[in-house]
Amino acid sequence: MRPDVEAMKADIEQSVALLRRRLDWDVALRKLDELNARVEDPTLWDDAEKAQVVTRERSRLQAQIDTVREMEQGLEDGVMLADMADEEGDEATLEDARASLKTIKERAARAELEALLSGEADGNDAYLEVNSGAGGTESNDWAGMLLRMYSRWARAHGYEVDIEAEESGEQAGIKSATILISGPNAYGWLKSESGVHRLVRISPYDAAAKRHTSFASVGVSPVVDDTIEIDINPSDVRTDTYRASGAGGQHINKTDSAVRLTHVPTNTVVACQAGRSQHQNREQAWKMLRARLYELELQKREAAAQALADAKTDIGWGHQIRSYVLQPYQMVKDLRTNVETSDTSGVLDGDLDAFMGAALAARVGETRGSSAA
Predict the structure, then answer these.
(1) Is this structure's pTM higher than 0.90?
(2) Does the pLDDT of residue 77 top 60, yes or no?
């Protein structure tokens, strides 16, 4: 066996063994059988929300088990193909086998990181909110670029993206926007993206072509399902209705049906305008408020986590997590993990896995797999 093929085989075997241990393989198989039996029970569907929680848990566990099995089968097939090609001196087929094993190795690295998503809400959907900092059109445009970046990342990974609220900038970009990203482990992957993002570039809005620095904040909250209890006193919440604003289109309601909720004790504000009626927007806004308050509670539990209120009131130098420099050189650098890349266009098009993976590994004290940077 060629040395490079042997090395990839060893890496994949190590990853598979690690995933089996983290899953507690035999226990996971028994639990999947139990979940399958529950889903097949017609009475489960008497409670739609409970049924959704069970089916989501089953889908998550099934996906984890399938990933391990597919990697094991792919490794066996790839090594067999590589051995046959090596014996026959078929370099083209050997290269195909290498490419197949490389793909499995990359998938294994991501699966290892996903196995670390063991937080209470890591498997849930996520609300992602972008707010522009001071700086008018420049910051609004940067906030719009970030919204596009995260939307592209989400869709590239098979997540659904829905706009819940959006306030357009006067000339370009957005002042603020909230999107719902739906899919397995959405919050787990995105939670490390909360903070201030800094952009340095030659402004397209400056006739003198001077370099500008812009800031925008990102906040991420998990969608809270019925497995997580959040008690909110209705008397602590102020409700306002208003006419939705935005770029227009079928997702922007043009009547006075948009809803804004303010949780007075924490000064937490959420808004929803995506629904066709005030009732729909009010219901969704309450879900968003529960998510935001839960995220605040998580931040209290983690002394090292940046307080969401600080991130939203001081969008500037003190709370940066990542710097995007387009001029005078090309570089995106995460200030927490020191992961960096010169592929700025790729990052702005949604290639964020290296940053998310490093932040996730650092957050749980894991160092294996840091070479993904």
Answers:
(1) no
(2) yes
